[in-house]
Each structure stands twice: as C-alpha cells, then as structure tokens.
Design a protein that fits this description.
globular, single chain, 346 residues, mainly alpha, ABC transporter involved in vitamin B12 uptake, BtuC
C-alpha cells in the first residue's frame, strides 16, 4: 500500500477533525427536544440560549485568537439598543431583519474599535476593551432622550415573527427563535474555526511572531475575528431586547462582561461548546441558588469557581473519560463503515 502524499494526509486529518462527533449530535438533539419536553421552562431556556450565544462571541476571540476582553458588553448593549430603537420607531418591523441589522451595526462598532484594541499587550487590551464599554455606557446615559437613560428604553413593541408568530408571555416563540438563531450562528462559527482562517487564528494565538514569519497577516486576521465576535455579541443583545421588549443601561454594565468570563471559566475555552455548557450550568445554578438563598447565591457560584481552580479542569474532565471514549469508539466504527462502503464502489 503506497503512502499518501503529505498534502492529502493533512487534508484527510482536517476533514476528520471537522466531522461531527456523536456527543455533538446528542447535544443538539437534546436542545431541540427541549422545545417539546420542557415547555414550562422556555423562559429560562431562552436566557440560556442568549447567554450561550454571547459566550460564543467571547470564545471566538479568547479561545481561538487569544484576545482577552472585558468589554464584550459594549457590543451586546449596542445590539440591544439598536434592536430596541428599530422596533420602537418602526424602522424595521420584521424581527429577524432587525436582528441582522443590529448584528451588522455591532460588527461595525467592533471593526472601528478593533484598531485600538489590538494594539499593545494583553493588559493593554483588557483596559482598552473595558474603556470602550464604559464609554458606550456613558454615551447611552448622556443621551437619555434617545435611550431612556436609567429608566430604560420604553415603548418597545416587537411585531410577530414573519408576521405570524407573536412573542407570548410564556416564552414559547422566544425560545424557538433564540434557539434557531443560536444553531445557525454556531454552525457558522464551527465552519470558521475549522477553516484555514480558523487554523491561522490558532497559529497566531500560539506564536504571533512565528505566524507573521510564515506569511500570515496577523493584524488582518485579528481585526476580522474581532469584528465577527462583535457581530455575534450584537445579535445576542438584540435577541434579549426582542424577547423581553425592553432594554436598559444594564446591558452595558461591566457585570455583564464579568459574568461572561465566569461562564467561560466554568465551561472552558477553545472548543465552542465551552460557552454553551457554561451558560447552561451558570443559569441553572443561578436560578436554583437564587430560589434557595436569594441573598447569597453569588457566594456559592464563587465557591464553585474556587473548586474548579483547586481540583483542576483536567481532573474534572477525566471523570467523563468513559463517555468520551465510547463516543470515539462509535465515531471510529462509523468512519470504518464509510470507508468500507466507499471501497466497494466501482
């Protein structure tokens, strides 16, 4: 049997790496099943979907490009206010179209500020991203005649989705809508990180000097992924406004960016599902602990973070080793069957 050329071998490995794993299929099957299995929990499930999408935006720049940000709330809030203003003044009445417009607007803000953010070291980036968020919050507070200021944006009326599906008080339409948007944008993010563009981002994260030496346009790649991540955050903010018919200065608060980092600490970075898993755990813990001890629930979440640090993520991940081994075995059998079938073709 002749050995494959290096190029073909690399291409084969990249295709195998990007293929869907059984646990991934199970995850999204469970998410879709929750529409019918958990109809009474659609309100909190909508919050989880929005937070998961928001966390995905930070994971794109932190987990794959190594950009640490404390100001992701800037784009979340900009998208939230954009969707609210579009709905309030009937500029764009179709929610899905308004969602796209809000995401593009947030991406433009991300593009403009990216040239400031990407200069300097990690510490400089942290301070600049935080500064951008604080500046946008102060602008929103200053122009209260437009944003509503501390009272929030009043009079937001979200029209039915596609002119057919109204956003009911039980959150049924909102959850289906948020979950659909999350799935579409997750598929796009998955395609991005497994493309040559995504691989070049990981190279930049590992060693930007070496990446530049082999011809990768480092600054251009970082600007591009920062802009995409800002668009994702803007869509998440717009979803929050559309599903609640309200927005306020809280969408630009530092606490929102801090919670986002907690979500990624819980779920992990650099594999897309970290933000989703972290959002599920964070929101469920918050809901349960807030009902159990309304005044002290942050203490228990903080205790969990300390436990993660002390125990170690590697040790925690080792507890799921049998499940992951079974998933790899199933995927290997599927790949072997596909190769056998391909070999039998004329």
């Amino acid at each position: 049997m002749s050995q494959q050329p290096p190029g073909e071998e690399i291409a084969r490995r990249l295709v195998a790496r990007a293929s869907w794993q059984p646990l991934e299929v199970l995850f999204w099957a469970a998410a879709l099943a929750s529409i019918y299995v958990l109809p009474g929990r659609h309100l909190i499930l909508t919050e989880i979907a929005i937070l998961g999408l928001f966390a995905l935006s930070l994971d794109l720049i932190l987990g794959y490009a190594g950009i640490v940000s404390l100001g992701q709330a800037a784009f979340f809030g900009f998208g939230a206010y954009a969707a609210g203003l579009l709905a309030k003044y009937d500029l764009v009445t179709e929610p899905l179209l308004a969602l796209i417009v809000s995401g593009v607007a947030a991406a433009l803000v991300g593009f403009v500020t990216s040239f400031l953010v990407l200069r300097g070291s990690d510490l400089t980036r942290i301070m600049v991203t935080l500064g951008v968020a604080l500046v946008l919050r102060e602008i929103a507070n200053r122009y209260a005649w437009l944003t509503g200021g501390a009272d929030g944006l009043q009079g937001v009326e979200i029209k039915p989705l596609f002119g057919l599906y109204r956003f009911d008080m039980f959150g049924h339409t909102a959850f289906c809508y948020a979950l659909g948007v999350l799935i579409v944008l997750f598929l796009l993010a998955r395609r991005i990180v497994h493309s040559p563009f995504g691989l070049s981002l990981q190279s930049i994260k590992g060693n930007p000097v070496r990446a530049a030496a082999v011809g990768i346009p480092v600054n251009g790649r970082l600007v591009a992924i920062y802009t995409i991540a800002a668009g994702y955050a803007g869509v998440a903010g717009a979803l929050l406004t559309q599903t609640t018919a309200f927005t306020s200065l809280s969408v630009l608060d530092f606490e929102r960016s801090a919670d986002l980092l907690l979500v990624l600490i819980i779920g992990g970075t650099g594999y897309l599902y970290g933000g989703l898993i972290g959002a599920i755990l964070f929101k469920l813990m918050q809901d349960y602990l807030a009902a159990l001890t309304p005044q002290y629930w942050p203490f228990w979440i903080g205790l969990l973070l300390v436990a993660i640090v002390l125990i170690g993520r590697e040790r925690i991940m080792s507890w799921t080793k049998p499940i992951r081994a079974l998933a790899r075995r199933l995927d290997w059998r599927r790949s072997t069957t596909a190769v056998a079938v391909e070999g039998q073709r004329p």
